[in-house]
Amino acid sequence: MKNNDENLEETSKKQNNKDLDLVDNVEGNEEIKENQGGEVETSINNDNEDALLEQRSDINEDHMDKSDISDQELGKQLRDFHRNLIEASLYVAGSPLTIEELSTKLEIPKKKVEELINEIAFDYLERTTSLVVNQVGDRYQMALKSEYIEKVSKFAKGGAIAEKYLRTLTIIALKQPILKSLVIKIRGSGAYEHIKYLLDNGLILGVKKGRSQELTTTDKYAEMFGLPKDKQQMKATMISQLGLDEE
Fold it and tell me: Strand locations in the chain, DSSP E?
């Protein structure tokens, strides 16, 4: 027969076992909850990762497309910029420019300058515009088409020039050097006053020759109307602009 001490010890062991079972049950339930939560969390994380990867893929594709477009556009933008530089240089120069000058000052290869300036010249011919790019020898110049000179002369430096003066001036420019007497024969007695006006305004020069004067245009005239200062080049340009036949 068991004594009291043994009974107490056995009772204590049973209680400890119950406590351990309870602890195991609690820990097991918590582990299940943790596992369930982990599975849910893992599922959510997996979904997020898939969405993130898909989003990154889209971003990368967009970035690649933009990079491709940028690379393609870069060359065109640089070419357009060089073309605009050449066009602007012709506009502000006031005198014909060579390929060499444009290449050196704009830091654009000569071959590229030649290609672009010809493109600009043809473009102006195809457009409805009052301007034209003329090639005079090895030089290029942006100028006003002759048919517009008369109408817009009032805005030129030096003020308005009446049509009667412009007609006489055009004859002098095309036929220079020309005797004053011949101009008067072509334009009539009113040319005396025209010539005086043109001399007074520095558009022509008169050099005595026999009983008459030999008339030529000045640099001021060339600059005013965007024409070459060289007389032969000036005449060639005007003949081309007016569609005249060379004599």
Answer: 97-98, 131-136, 139-144, 178-179, 204-209, 212-217
Ranges of each domain in the chain: 75-144, 149-242
Burial (CB count <10 Å: 0-12, 13-18, 19+), residue 1:
exposed
- CA-nearest of 174, 177, 180, 175 to 213 is 180
pTM: predicted TM-score of the whole model, two decimal places? 0.46
* Two tokens, residue 74: 């870069």
Q: Which CATH number is associated with domain 149-242?
A: 1.10.10.10
pLDDT digits (tens, 9 = 90+) for 23-41: 455 455 545 444 444 444 4
Output the average pLDDT for the chain.
76
pLDDT over 60 (residue 203): yes
- pLDDT over threshold 90, residue 99: yes
CATH of domain 75-144: 1.10.10.10
Half-sphere exposure at residue 24, Cβ-oriented, CA atoms within 13 angstroms: 6
